[in-house]
Amino acid sequence: MVLDVVAEKGLVLLGCGKMGGAMLAGWLKSGVPPQSVWVIDPNPSDWLKGTGVHLNEEITGTPAVAIVAVKPQMMGAALPSLQALGGGGTLFVSIAAGTQIAAFEAAFGASSPIVRAMPNTPAAVGRGITAIIGNAQVDAAALDLTEALLSAVGQVVRLESEEQMDAVTAVSGSGPAYVFHLIESMAAAGEAQGLSAELALQLAKATVAGAGALAEGTEESPTQLRVNVTSPNGTTQAALEVLMDEGAGFPPLLKRAVTAAADRSRELANG
Asked: What pTM was estimated for this model as a whole?
């Protein structure tokens, strides 16, 4: 089992907020012993204090992996606590948005294996998707270990280059916010048609969640699923003629939104 190396050598989690906490819960549930985990967090939650992990204790030995799960603006103050692990014995995995691999090579040394990962917030309910890319020091075993760890909170995909991370950030990293706004907008539109606010929101949330599950659980493409539910000259077609308008509908709007997010990701990464 890939995670056996974590149980044997240990794992360090730097930062245990919502994302880090979701991952930790997944690891413990999958059988990683609490005594094999060191967590560094200045403001630990009550839940964290009851897990049995080493909390803000001195790290012993050479852990198999160190997960960097702090916000980018906290990186400068937090990374020094892991510098002693640099040099090749420990795999570093960062889930910090907008921080390039080069920044971690500068902190831990170019000989350190480093994986950059971009998860998204549905990881909190085990339905996330995370993209990963490693530096030249990361071998197949290190990628397998990273994927096994991050699979605790959802799907994992591997990128071909770090440059793709900006597009990933724009599609799946920021994407949940687009879906949440869709739910908000659908509910508001339903309310405008005479539904109560509570009922409109319930309908919108269930519809988006169910449609997503259907799209993920079938071999049919989203295009075919759309065709399946669209009767000629029916209500769905009437709505889609508005939504699919090439001038003001979903296609150009989402293209602009994703482009804006990707451009901003590049700006943040370049300081």
From this structure: 0.92
Other Cβ atoms within 10 Å of 106 Cβ, number: 11
Q: Which domains does the chain have, with CATH numbers?
A: 4-165 (3.40.50.720)
Which among 125, 118, 121, 126 has a CA at the least distance from the CA of 154?
126
Lowest mean pLDDT among 12-21, 232-241, 245-254, 262-271: 262-271
Task: Tell me, rounded to whole angstroms, the distance of Cα 193 from its chain centroid.
Answer: 36
Spatial contact of 170 and 185, defined as CB atoms under 8 Å apart: no
Alpha-helix runs per DSSP H in 89-129: 101-108
Question: What is the residue whose two structure tokens read 């413990």?
Answer: 28
The owner of tokens 């989402």 is: 254
Contact (CB, 8 A) for 162 and 100: yes
Please count the CA atoms within 13 angstroms of the CA of 194 that sit on its side-chain side: 0
Give the C-alpha separation, 30 to 132, whole Å.
Answer: 21
Torsion angles phi and psi, residue 183, rounded to 5: -60, -45
